[in-house]
């Protein structure tokens, strides 16, 4: 038999039609002289059905681009059609041939394809549909045998790898620092099985990267040398008692370091195999059925941690989305804010929105960090936003506090906040400071005034009478309010506010100040850091 | 697609499509059948000896023709199908309703 033959066609419909595809098929088969008539008939019919299906249905009349690749191996022919059409779910399994007497004029395409080739697969990756057809050639066919699923070896492998890589990147875990929740599992695995080491390895492009290592394993190594890269090719646990005795894995063995290996695949939330939990030893070893079961349990645990961090990063996106995105129009004023949670999500938030002729501005800090605080923070934000529509500043805080008291009481949390309203014409800022006390006004002449906190935080005293105070911002003045996480970035005392105030007077825009704080906080902030800067042009 | 249309024996109209009977050519077949039925004739033989290839769209056009001729009291029969056409007919379980005859003459041999 001849060598492998590959042909590719770029299709754009219109003007291309199935006739264009047919011409490519004719020219491809010319290069495969030993192709059996039955193979040719079956492949022509199946591929044209596929192309017609894509051209006709996938884009509902809109132009479509597609690439058709045909690879003729000595024992099989594979065809992959990748198209830009919009198809959601494709039920290949469920498509059966209409009954013999049913005179339907359409609906036979996919069933016909299934009858003609051994494998029909559809995948959707990155907005493209990838259809793969595989037919075993007559030379290796068992006469009259029904179609048997043959995994495609060429193109779909590339597509799977693309999907895998994408899923891994979306998890945002690559090159992150070690985390105890993962290290706990590898430490336990190492002890439990009494082996030299245990690792959580992720397969990223052409390298293996370790999220967790117990023992002396490398943090990074080429994928070509990785045994976990072999583990992820299958759903099963890979157990190799002695790598030196395994002809396919022998070249990955390292004497006295990597001789025994057992690994179980780890999945992304979408099911893609992204890596493995593995244990290894420098001496040959057996691994009982029971031990394999334990390894699978540990892998499930890692899996849960991976999923949890994925969900958390989605929660973080949502929380960032709650912060004011676009600047409200405030002629003569410049406002900027930043919120950097210590964990994925946090209990701080800031907010601003137009109220009447001015703007409402809020900065709040829920006691604690993490998810619980984040839920309360979102509630406070919503309640304050609705309350701000009624009455004055004190009235809004009073209404919000009344609605929140029960929740805060149940959860045992309390919230400090600054909520105020800015009159853009006069520069008067009327505010309630509920146990916050972290607001300063930096005057144009260089003096820094701290705004006093007169009332306790929300959730402490149910009978608080909320009273507002006011301060006037003159041209060139800057108001800065922050959460206590800011103090930790400096010396931990209120002097930090004076430093920020001085910085704000030197800066030419409000966002220059928030950028400076962001830079200072990156990677070192133990607590949520939130800052809002309001400056009056002058 | 150019479809030859000739009068056959016993008032049968013979259609001779040529080349590939796929989604590009299928509408022409439907139109040809419709124009014959509209002109008051409903016995059609489709001579497929010039057809190299058929797909499910081509098949759909033949079934559509079968239905419209039968509604008009006639029939649509096929003849001269090559191996590929026969393969598709057999895989779609349509051999009974679209029985492939050897020749156009045999298609209406019972008439």
From TrEMBL, chain A:
SMART domains, per the entry: GAF, PP2C_SIG
Residues covered by the PPM-type phosphatase domain: 324-536
A GO MF term: phosphatase activity
PROSITE patterns cross-referenced by the UniProt entry: PPM_2 (PS51746)
The keyword Hydrolase belongs to this UniProt entry's keyword annotation: yes
Annotated keywords: Hydrolase
Top-level taxon: Bacteria
Family annotation (SUPFAM superfamilies): GAF domain-like, PP2C-like
Keyword Acetylation part of the UniProt annotation: no
InterPro entries: Bact_Sigma-Reg, GAF, GAF-like_dom_sf, HATPase_C_sf, HATPase_dom, PPM-type-like_dom_sf, PPM-type_phosphatase-like_dom
Pfam families, per the entry: GAF (PF01590), HATPase_c_2 (PF13581), SpoIIE (PF07228)
Protein name: GAF domain-containing protein
Organism: Microcella putealis
TrEMBL record, chain B:
Molecular function terms, GO-annotated: anti-sigma factor antagonist activity
Positions of the STAS domain: 11-111
Pfam families in the record: STAS
NCBIfam families in alphabetical order: ant_ant_sig
Family assignment from sequence similarity: Belongs to the anti-sigma-factor antagonist family.
Protein name: Anti-sigma factor antagonist
């Amino acid at each position: 038999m001849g060598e492998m033959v590959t042909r590719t066609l770029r299709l754009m419909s219109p003007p291309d039609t199935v006739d264009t595809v047919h011409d490519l098929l004719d020219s491809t088969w010319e290069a495969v002289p030993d192709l059996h008539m039955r193979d040719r008939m079956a492949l022509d019919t199946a591929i044209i059905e596929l192309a017609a299906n894509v051209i006709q249905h996938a884009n509902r009349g809109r132009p479509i681009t597609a690439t058709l690749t045909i690879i003729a191996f000595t024992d099989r022919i594979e065809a992959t059609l990748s198209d830009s059409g919009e198809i959601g779910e494709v039920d290949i399994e469920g498509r059966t041939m209409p009954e013999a007497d049913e005179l339907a004029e359409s609906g036979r395409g996919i069933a016909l394809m299934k009858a003609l080739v051994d494998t029909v697969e559809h995948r959707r990756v990155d907005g493209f549909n990838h259809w793969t057809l595989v037919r075993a050639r007559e030379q290796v066919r068992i006469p009259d045998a029904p179609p048997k699923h043959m995994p495609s070896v060429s193109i779909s492998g590339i597509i799977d790898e693309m999907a895998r890589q994408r899923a891994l990147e979306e998890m945002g875990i690559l090159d992150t620092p070690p985390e105890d929740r993962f290290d706990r599992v590898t430490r336990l695995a190492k002890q439990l099985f009494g082996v030299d080491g245990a690792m959580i390895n992720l397969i990223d492009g052409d390298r293996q990267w370790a999220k967790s290592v117990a023992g002396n394993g490398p943090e990074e190594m080429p994928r070509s040398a990785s045994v976990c890269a072999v583990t992820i090719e299958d759903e099963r646990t890979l157990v190799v008692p002695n790598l030196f005795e395994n002809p396919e894995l022998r070249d990955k063995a390292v004497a006295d370091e990597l001789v025994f290996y057992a690994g179980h695949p780890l999945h992304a939330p979408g099911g893609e195999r992204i890596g493995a939990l593995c244990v290894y030893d420098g001496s040959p070893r057996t691994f009982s059925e029971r031990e394999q079961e334990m390894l699978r349990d540990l892998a499930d645990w890692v899996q849960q941690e991976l999923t949890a961090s994925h969900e958390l990063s989605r929660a973080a996106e949502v929380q960032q989305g709650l912060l004011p995105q676009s600047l409200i129009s405030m002629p003569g004023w410049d406002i900027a804010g930043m919120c950097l949670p210590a964990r994925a999500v946090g209990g701080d938030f800031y907010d601003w929105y137009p109220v009447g002729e001015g703007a409402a501005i809020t900065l709040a800090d829920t006691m604690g960090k993490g998810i619980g605080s984040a839920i309360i923070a979102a509630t406070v934000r919503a309640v304050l936003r609705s309350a701000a529509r009624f009455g004055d500043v004190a009235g809004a805080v009073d209404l919000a506090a009344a609605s929140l008291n029960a929740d805060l009481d149940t959860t045992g949390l309390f919230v400090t906040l600054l909520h105020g309203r800015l009159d853009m014409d006069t520069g008067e800022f009327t505010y309630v400071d509920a146990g916050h006390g972290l607001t300063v006004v930096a005057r144009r002449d260089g003096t820094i005034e701290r705004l006093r906190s007169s009332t306790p935080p929300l959730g402490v005293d149910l009978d608080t009478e909320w009273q507002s105070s006011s301060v006037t911002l003159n041209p060139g003045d800057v108001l800065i309010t922050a959460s206590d996480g800011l103090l930790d970035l400096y010396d931990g005392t209120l002097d930090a506010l004076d430093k920020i105030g001085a910085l704000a007077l030197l800066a030419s825009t409000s966002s220059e100040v928030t950028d400076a704080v962001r830079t200072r906080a990156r990677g070192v902030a133990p607590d949520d850091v939130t800052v809002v800067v309001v400056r009056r042009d002058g | 697609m150019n479809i030859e249309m000739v009068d056959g024996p016993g008032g049968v109209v013979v259609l001779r499509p040529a080349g590939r009977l796929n989604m590009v050519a299928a509408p022409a077949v439907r139109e040809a059948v419709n124009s014959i039925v509209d002109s008051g004739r409903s016995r059609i033989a489709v001579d497929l000896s010039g057809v190299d290839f058929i797909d499910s769209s081509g098949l759909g056009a033949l079934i559509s023709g079968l239905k419209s001729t039968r509604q008009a009291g006639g029939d649509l029969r096929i003849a001269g199908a090559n191996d590929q056409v026969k393969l598709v007919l057999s895989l779609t379980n349509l051999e009974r309703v679209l029985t492939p005859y050897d020749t156009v003459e045999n298609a209406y041999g019972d008439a």
